[in-house]
Amino acid sequence: MKIFVASEAGFCYGVKRATKAAFEAAASAAGPVYTLGELIHNPQVVGRLEKVGVRAARDVADVGTSTVIIRSHGLPRATVEALAAQGAHILDLTCPTVKAVQQRAAALTSEGYEVVIVGDRDHPEVEAIAGYAGPAAVIVNSEEEAAAIPRAEKIGVVMQTTHTAAACLRIVAALLDKAPEILIFNTLCDATAKSQKAALQLAAEVDVMVVVGGRNSANTGRLAEICRGAGAETHHVETANELRAEWLEGVAAVGVTAGTSTPDWVIEEVVAKLKAWSLEGGEAARSKKRTP
Predict the structure, then answer these.
(1) Among residues 136, 160, 188, which one ends one of the domains?
(2) Residues annotated as catalytic (active site), given as ranges
(3) pTM of the entire structure?
(4) How far is it, in rounded angstroms, from Cα 169 to Cα 200?
(5) What angle do CA 68, 73, 77 make, to 5 degrees?
(6) What is the tally of structural domains in the chain?
(7) pLDDT score recorded for residue 280
(8) Cα atoms found within 13 Å of the Cα of residue 230, Cβ hemisphere only
(9) Residues of the chain whose pLDDT is less than 70?
(10) Which of 167, 195, 194, 172 lies closest to 183, judged by CA?
(11) What is the structure's pLDDT at 282?
(12) Where are the alpha helices (DSSP H) in 1-142?
């Protein structure tokens, strides 16, 4: 069995930057360090952060005046202002790409545009963007939802950075008759787009795809959808422990990709286990051939 790893897989710049800074903050802070929600959508990284003292808080009041990390997905403006008002020491690790979308959404609102955010309504990145766009912002995640919004004089569109280009194109097309003036900004993350493209290419060339990453990671879930759409039998796992040997019976080639919040060491463990099984299978086949 041959094993291939996608040319673009694992940590993106924003996640790598946030994770490194969070560990550094834990080592240097005099008191406790908090994040509001998980720093990134990867349970293994979050677990390691907890071991060095970075705790996930649920509410602004829980952090007091301690160091609080703004996670890579960002936080709504009102939440950041509340943290500052109570004297928290803020370490802003919002992904620069996400930060740019927040600023774009705020600017559109100030210029009188009705802001439409294309993305997952319950995703923390989208919630943060909406917090900058203001209460009138509309979130849509399907052509049907886009078609249902009321007409306006002018509409400004931004996109969740980890969405797929194909889905965004379909949704934006449904918005085109909603206003005489529409500004559409392609705010998709380049790293995510490259990861999706590499996964699609690999999935078309192998029998089975293993997609590695947190089950709460939107971009990892989309990678799995893309691989299934390409025709490959696809399995989404968080760690090597979830791999099943029966998935690989009779398989000539398996591909591995990972979400942008998946660290290298988790990917390496998955690949190492697949390689071990491949070698075991090869030895068993050779032994069988030598049996008289």
Answers:
(1) 188
(2) 125
(3) 0.86
(4) 18
(5) 65
(6) 3
(7) 76
(8) 23
(9) 281-292
(10) 172
(11) 47
(12) 13-28, 43-51, 77-85, 96-110, 124-133
